[in-house]
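Issue: copy button drops trailing tokens. Both records pasted manually instead:
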Amino acid sequence: MRDVYENPLCKRYAGKEMQQIFSDDRKFSTWRKLWIALAESEQELGLDISDAQIDEMKAHIHDIDYEMAAKREAEVRHDVMAHIYTYGQVCPAAKPIIHLGATSCFVGDNTDLIIMKDALQLVRKKLLTVIEGVADFAEKYKDLETLAYTHFQAAQPTTVGKRATLWLQDLMMDLENLDHVASNLKLRGCRGTTGTGASFLELFNGDEEKVFALEKKVTEKMGFTENYDVTGQTYSRKVDYFVLSMLSGIAQSATKFSSDMRLMSHKKEFDEPFEAGQVGSSAMAYKRNPMRSERIASLSRLVIAEAMNPAITAATQWLERTLDDSANKRISIPEAFLAIDGVLNLYNNIIRGMKVYPKQIEKHLMEELPFMATENIMMECVKRGGDRQQLHEAIRNHAVAAGLAVKEEGADCDLIDRIAADPVFGLTKEEILAIIKGSRFSGLASVQTERYVKKVRAVLEKEKDFMATATTEAIRV
């Protein structure tokens, strides 16, 4: 269809697997699975529900008549009642017991939690894949010295691998946060209209233990170990905030990486993957824009902004429930997951395919390193009998002159040549270069990288079976 709006997250950015998780088929088939779990549990606890009724329901989990449901919803103005009716049309024997004792949030809220649980597992797989890619990159370039920056002004050297560990550590924090959020995700359970379980208490003739047992059975049948201790009609909308806040954290980490990539691309030290026929600009044929990194930043901004929606929703819920969550919730949660899916696909593509230019990195380093090495040069001259004060003044004069020549005349930095030509130092250019090369300007960068990557590898080793199931779908990037 070209005459109506289609969400770009589905058309351009998110992978098929994440789209399937938030599809109508997944949503409404899960509603039917919940109704089956409820009926089975009620039967097991003594209600008059037959095996034939349950078998009939199981036979029609996926053959959903969306046209009938839409027509019925237009009449009754209630989506759950429309789908109960539609399900009942293909399950005439089970029709009297579908949704028995439940309220709309039994299927609505529980399904949202089930879908978020599945979506979190897909995010986790992709996050681990990205972590592995960054760890590989860090290890590969752990010894490649590069100019480090503070305030995007030249500072002391580091290594390319050490810089990558900054990205890596952010992602590991995100993994820890994801695991915390996922492990605390619970099912809403069977609570009735205001969370008191009154309808189920009536069904079981006042037997409290059967009501609690019903909830336990349904919870386990739907793949959860726990349900929330108390609810109103809905589970607390703070749960949605915790989930999207965690996704926002991943988006923040990805944005930091993408910003670094854009800065280094500007300096021609790195290129993100660029296909042979790829066009960088419609006007400037020579351009190679970091469009994938820019897309990460763009999609991540959406995820970060989306985290505000459940925060405001949670803060404004009235008493046992209000419906101003529904329209917002059905947009903000899927969009946040779809966008972060696209972000992780892009991140993985870039980190595993980007090109590094060591000569350009060395050039930029050597433009600044002579200035940083002046103290080491001065100390070597003092060891050879030189006067520190005289040497300090000479270095100051040469450094100022060399710096001005670079800024005012566009000249290359010739500080080493200036020092080598000054007899007060008594050093050849080769000796000066040897002093610079022998100095550990990047400190423990290489060692720190090795040590941290080793820790990350230990985590990845524990996750190798889980990662083996990770999607290999082709993604447009």
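Record 2 (pasted manually too):
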Amino acid sequence: MKIINKILEKSAEPWYSWVVFIMTVCESIFLFIPPEVFITPAIVSDKKRAVPVTVAASLGSLVGGAIAYLIGYLVFDTVGVWLIEHVASMDKFVLTQELFNKYGVLIIILTAVTPIPYKLLAICAGFLAYPMWIFLAVSAIFRTGRFAIIGFLLWRFQKQANNLVKKYSLQLTIGAIILACLGICIFMLI
């Protein structure tokens, strides 16, 4: 209980928005912890932090998404070609690229609002050379929308959320990680 109180105390500080920004950048590139884990403590501890934390998460998500996209785009000539030659075929790659070009916006929306790991989509979008501006625009709208809804709900029900976090913090964290793992499984099946 002491650690939860310490986290809630520290997350009420103005500098915590930078923590949310940095952690959301990391989440969008390589970290498999949902952004809500970083957003929740600040808003639960002080509902006035809802807007700055939501903005920090949204901006961090976009910066991280752009970096992950570039990673996918830049490794295509080395890792990508090798993967296509040894795991699939160029015909399957072209088919995948056509499907992504046709349904890319829908795939981005689905990934932006569900536990499917955003980083995998961002890397794949770059790998498949999906237009970056479309990827970032759709991501901006729907990732920001997701964070805004969560921020609003935490703001609106701050007192109840504070009690839940203090009482079930371990279970909520484990649940968030399980959701992220399920998202990975769903992404692999698509």
